[in-house]
C-alpha cells in the first residue's frame, strides 16, 4: 500500500513537472515570437539576447535603426512643405517693391514698378509717373496718368524749396518764362512740375553751327523780353546762358527762360552783388576784376551779349581751353566780329559787350534796338554754308562748368 502511495506521489510530481515544462516552453515560444515580430516591423534592434527595450539604457542613442531616420526625414519633408511654402506666399504678397530711383525719390507716397528685361525704374507721385532723370540732376521726365501729357519734374528738399522757387513766385506770368504747373508735397521732398520742353538753345546752336539773322531776331527778341521782365521785377539771373532757354514747341519757334532757382532777388533798386557766380564763357570782366560789389543787371546784359554773339557767329566771343587765358581775354574785353554780320547786328552785340558796365544797354533798351525790328527782307544771306560749316563750333562748355563760382 505504501508502494502504491509512493507511486502516486511520483506520478503527481511528474505531471506537475511536465505541466511546468510545457508552460515554460509556451512562454519561451511566445517571447521569441514577440521579438521576431518586433524585428520584422522595423523597431530598434537590441540584439539576440531578448532584453526588453523598456529597460535598455541605449534605446535613445541607437542610430543604426532604419525606421527612426526614415521617419525623421519624412517629418522634415512634411514640415518643409507645410511651413516654408505658405511663408513664401506671404512674403510675395506683403513685400513692397524696391525703390528704383535716387534717395530723394523714395518717400512713402511712391510706388515703383519694374517692367521689361532691363527693369526700367518707374516711380509715381500724385497723378504723375516719374521716368528717367536728367544725368547729374534731380530733374525727371514725368507723364500725367490721365491726360498722358509730359512734364518736367524737379525735386527739392522740403527745407530749401521756399527759397529756390521764390523767383517764380515773385515774377508775374510771362510768355517767355517757364511756369510752375503743379506742386506736390512729399514727406521729405517737394515735387515741382513744369511744362515739358523740346531742347535747349545751346544744343540747337551746336547743331546749326550758327543761325541766320532772321531766325536769330525772332528767338533773341524772346530772350531779351524774358530778361527784361526779370529785371523789372527785381530778379537778377546771375548765371545767364544759352542752356537756360528751352523750346516749348516741336517746331522750335518759342522760347522760355527756365532754371531760375539760382537767381537773386533784389530789395529795392540797388542791384549790387558781391558773390561771383556764373559760367566761365559768360562771366563779365567786372566780376573777374572787382573785389567788392558789381551791378547784377549789367552782368546779365554782358551774358546776354555772349548769347547773341554765339547764336550769330557759332562760337563764344572769348574762348580758350585754359581758364587763365580765357579770363585774361575777358578782362581785356577785346573780341572780333565777323564782317558777314549786318551792321545793326554788330551794333547790338557791341552795345552789350562793353567792358564798362555803365556803358552797356539796359534790358528795356535792347528791346528798342533797330535790329530787333528789322523786316526779313533787310537781312541778306551772310552765311551761305552756315549750316554745314565746321570751322566754328560752339564747345560744350556750359555743362561741365556751370556750377563754378568766381
Automatic annotation (TrEMBL):
Q: Does the keyword Transport apply?
A: no
Query: Which residues belong to any copy of the Protein kinase domain?
Result: 129-372
Q: Which InterPro entries match?
A: Kinase-like_dom_sf, Prot_kinase_dom, Tribbles/Ser_Thr_kinase_40
The protein's UniProt keywords, in alphabetical order, are: Protein kinase inhibitor
Q: Which residues form a coiled coil?
A: none
Which BP terms in the Gene Ontology apply to this protein?
positive regulation of proteasomal ubiquitin-dependent protein catabolic process
Which stretches does the entry tag as region Disordered? 81-117, 382-406
- Domain of life, source organism: Eukaryota
GO annotations of cellular component type: nucleus
Q: Name the Gene3D superfamilies on file.
A: Phosphorylase Kinase, domain 1, Transferase(Phosphotransferase) domain 1
Keyword Plastid among record annotations: no
Protein family (similarity comment): Belongs to the protein kinase superfamily. CAMK Ser/Thr protein kinase family. Tribbles subfamily.
Any idea what this protein is called?
Answer: Protein kinase domain-containing protein
